Structure formats: structure tokens, C-alpha cells
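Problem 12. The chain below contains 118 residues. Write out its predicted structure in C-alpha cell notation.
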Amino acid sequence: MKTLLKLEELAELLVATVVFAHLPFAWWWLPALFLLPDLSMMGYLAGPRAGAASYNLLHHKALALAVGVLGWWLGQPLLLLAGTVLLFHSAFDRLLGYGLKYGTNFQSTHLGAIGKAA
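Solution.
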């Protein structure tokens, strides 16, 4: 099952790459914006529950798809770019085993423990 889940994440990563390739932005935009969703970890400065909430918001694929579809529907390439970057980043994180966070601590994810807790 773990292999199947990783293949699914890889497929989402490739879909995001294909969508990005059709956007009117230079190739370097994707790697330049790649870590931007991780700024949500600053929520952990307010505690583990706030950190988990902010992290999960920007790493949730439904948000990525909603922003991307809204950008496509409105004809706004920047919104489509934002949704694509969010999807690419989230799929890449999950491919590496980083899941959505529980409010207890950063190492507790829906995919299991990460870091020293693993």
C-alpha cells in the first residue's frame, strides 16, 4: 500500500509539472516558489495547534486544487501558478513521507511519525 500511495503522489507531482509547463512563466519560477508553502510553519511560533492548523492549510491538496481551478476559471495565471506550486509542493512532501500535522507536535503526521519521533 505504501508503494501505491507514493505512486499516487508521484502522479500528482507530474500533473503539477505538466500544468506548470503550460503556464506563461519561466521554468525557474517553480523551484523559486517551491519552499514558499513552508512559511506556514511559522505558525508553530504560536504553539503546536496553531502551527498544525497553518501548516495543514497550505499543505492541503483541496486548497491547491481550489486555487488552481479558480485561476483557470477566472483566466488568472498567477492564481493557477499558486495552485500548481501548492500541489507540487504538497505532493513532493508526501512523497518524502511528510504528512499533515496533528496538533500535538510537528513530528506527528497522518502518515506516521517523522524525525526523531520515527
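Discussion. The CA atoms of residues 93 and 99 lie 7 Å apart. Students who got a different answer should revisit the alignment rule from Section 12.3.
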